[in-house]
């Protein structure tokens, strides 16, 4: 089906919830994808931080093929080996004692919200239900997770919002400390705000939050949907930030492209989830878990985490050099292979210019470009991104001069 025909079909048959780029991607290999016309693109979007092993990784393909031939789904009425093995793998390599599996980041955050409320109810009574989240956060598109998300544009038109959420400025401990009350059951945040513009949490701020939560028996929830699974150079971002949460959510990179989410928690918290309190029909099915196991093994047994750390530093340096050379770049922010570039100009226009030059990037807001490539990204591919951005920014300056003349 030609691209034009696909676009017409999408316009006619799909709900119009996405502003798509004008290409149709048909295959991928490594950190590159190819459109219907055979054009090559370097992928700095990675399925929105999902394809951490790139496209077509042999270990992931083999795991999916093998499991699909054996058993795809039976529900959680029965035990399956891939689910138990994946839970053990995540528990063995994190602060957590137990895992709950679902299908997405929003579902993982729903589970965390429900777990925090249940914990508050059981330990302190029904009035302990409020969760403090951060302004400019993003936690998903379900009714509870848009209420948790501190962005009005995500919530608009879906009111009345689910009650029980309060919003604090990110990286502002004093304000949060003043907001805590006998209603507060949890504080929930992303170690790096991805959709909110790539803002990194300050170490001292997180340390103070941890101490406050411990003193008040308030749960600390880290949404690592975007930062987890090696994105920042360690398996989880909290490992670099010096603070352990009580609950952590994962999705995106966990399945390397297969839909899977996870809510991990310490034993004392997880214990309030008993049979019948929460569930997911497809959550933790054998196919998704087999894929996630393959991803975990590649990360933990190979050199991908080291590569991600090195390439994250290389990308950050390249973007910093870009800032030094171009006045349209306002700020570089990020950690590892989650980097953001705040601009003086329209970021969406730059996304289109990059696309025309064979590089896929995306904008998280009007002025911020976000780079979340596969963790296997190579130095030469990062060089191509920096060259492309420089060419676009140089052209911007020339265009501005022409406009003044």
Strand content: 15-25%
Shape: globular
Residue share in helix: 40-55%
> Low-confidence spans: pLDDT under 50, at least 5 residues?
none
> According to CATH, what is the class of the largest domain?
Alpha Beta
Looking at CATH, the homologous superfamily of the largest domain is Type I PLP-dependent aspartate aminotransferase-like (Major domain)
CATH architecture verdict of the largest domain: 3-Layer(aba) Sandwich
Mean pLDDT value: 95
Query: The CATH topology of the largest domain, please?
Result: Aspartate Aminotransferase, domain 2
Oligomer: single chain
End-to-end span in angstroms? Answer: 46 Å
Strand order of the largest sheet: 4-12-11-10-7-5-6
Overview of this structure, please?
It is a single chain. The chain is α/β, with parallel strands linked by helices and 405 residues long. It has two domains: 3-56 and 303-404, Aspartate Aminotransferase, domain 1 (Alpha-Beta Complex); 71-301, 3-Layer(aba) Sandwich (Aspartate Aminotransferase, domain 2). Helices cover 43% and strands 18% of the residues. It has 15 helices and 17 strands. The strands form four sheets. The chain has a seven-stranded mixed sheet with strand order 4-12-11-10-7-5-6, sandwiched between helices. The protein has a four-stranded mixed sheet with strand order 1-2-3-15. Helix 3 runs antiparallel to helix 12 and helix 4 (81-92) packs parallel to helix 12 (286-301). It is globular, with a radius of gyration of 21 Å.
């Amino acid at each position: 089906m030609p691209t034009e025909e696909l676009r017409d079909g999408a316009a006619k048959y799909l709900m119009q919830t996405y502003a798509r780029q004008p290409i149709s991607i048909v295959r991928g290999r490594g950190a590159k994808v190819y459109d219907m016309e055979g054009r090559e693109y370097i992928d700095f979007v990675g399925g929105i931080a999902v394809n951490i092993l790139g496209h077509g990784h042999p270990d992931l393909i083999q795991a999916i093929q093998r499991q699909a031939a054996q058993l795809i789904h039976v529900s959680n009425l029965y035990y399956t080996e891939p689910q138990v093995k994946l839970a053990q793998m995540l528990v063995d390599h994190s602060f957590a004692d137990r895992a709950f599996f679902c299908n997405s980041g929003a579902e993982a955050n729903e589970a965390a919200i429900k777990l925090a409320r249940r914990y508050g109810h059981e330990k302190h009574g029904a009035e302990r239900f409020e969760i403090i989240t951060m302004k400019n956060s993003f936690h998903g598109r379900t009714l509870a997770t848009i209420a948790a998300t501190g962005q009005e544009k995500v919530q608009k038109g879906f009111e009345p919002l689910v009650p029980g959420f309060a919003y604090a400025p990110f990286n502002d401990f004093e304000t949060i400390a003043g907001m805590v009350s006998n209603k507060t059951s949890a504080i929930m945040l992303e170690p790096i705000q991805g959709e909110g513009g790539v803002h990194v949490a300050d170490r001292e701020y997180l340390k103070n939050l941890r101490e406050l939560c411990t003193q008040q028996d308030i749960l600390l929830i880290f949404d690592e949907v975007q930062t987890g699974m090696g994105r920042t150079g360690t398996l989880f971002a909290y490992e670099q930030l010096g603070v352990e949460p009580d609950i952590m959510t994962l999705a995106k990179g966990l399945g390397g492209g297969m839909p899977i989410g996870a809510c991990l928690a310490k034993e004392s918290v997880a214990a309030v989830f008993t049979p019948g309190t929460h569930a997911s029909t497809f959550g933790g099915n054998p196919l998704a878990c087999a894929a996630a196991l393959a991803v975990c093994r590649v990360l933990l047994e190979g050199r991908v985490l080291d590569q991600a750390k090195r390439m994250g530093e290389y990308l950050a340096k390249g973007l910093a050099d870009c800032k030094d050379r171009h006045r349209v770049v306002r700020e570089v922010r990020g950690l590892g292979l989650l980097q953001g570039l705040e601009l003086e100009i329209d970021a969406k226009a730059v996304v289109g210019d990059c696309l025309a030059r064979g590089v896929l990037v995306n904008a998280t807001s009007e002025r911020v470009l976000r780079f979340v490539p596969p963790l296997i990204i190579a130095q030469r591919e990062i060089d191509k991104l920096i060259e492309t951005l420089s060419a676009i920014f140089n052209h911007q300056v020339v265009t501005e001069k022409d406009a003044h003349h």
